[in-house]
Specification:
This protein is mainly alpha-helical. It has a single domain, classed as Protein of unknown function DUF1465 (Helicase, Ruva Protein, domain 3), CATH 1.10.8.930.
Length: 152
């Protein structure tokens, strides 16, 4: 999936694909944790119910960090924000809490699948964050030329 330009910048196609994936996963998580998983949650013992709720918040946090990061990348790639305006040096993928592995073994399969999917997406975007926009593309003219090349 690693579609980047030779300068190491993310392509609009990759950003858009990840954004769609994140939004679909966010909708699936919302649907499950808000309504579909209600019976699953009620079947757990009281302490695991609290853990289930905590893990649902962790999923939401991971996905919101990913979506915010992708929207910033999208705005920079589209020329709507400069790297300076977007605060690219400081704007990194936000930190997200780790999953409680002991609890994970006791959660319903649907919850585990959503938790794992959010972790995997967050991990992929984290790797991109580590390598994307690592170096300033240089002059505004080079930046414009690069955007034009990516468009074709």
């Amino acid at each position: 999936m690693g579609e980047t330009t030779t300068e190491g910048q993310l392509t609009p196609k990759l950003i858009d694909g990840l954004y769609v994936e994140a939004m679909v996963l966010a909708d699936e998580a919302r649907s499950y944790f808000d309504t579909g998983g209600r019976d699953d949650r009620l079947a757990l013992d009281p302490l695991d119910r609290v853990g289930f709720s905590c893990e649902s918040l962790k999923v939401t946090t991971r996905l919101m960090h990913v979506i915010a990061w992708l929207l910033t990348q999208r705005a920079v790639a589209a020329g709507e924000l400069s790297r300076d305006q977007a605060g690219m040096a400081e704007r990194r993928l936000g930190a997200a809490a780790d999953t409680d592995l002991e609890l994970l073994a006791r959660l319903p399969e649907n919850a585990v699948e959503l938790i794992r999917a959010s972790e995997e997406l967050y991990s992929r975007v984290g790797r991109l964050d580590q390598g994307s926009f690592a170096e300033d593309p240089g002059s505004p003219a080079r930046s414009l030329l690069s955007r034009l090349q990516r468009s074709f």
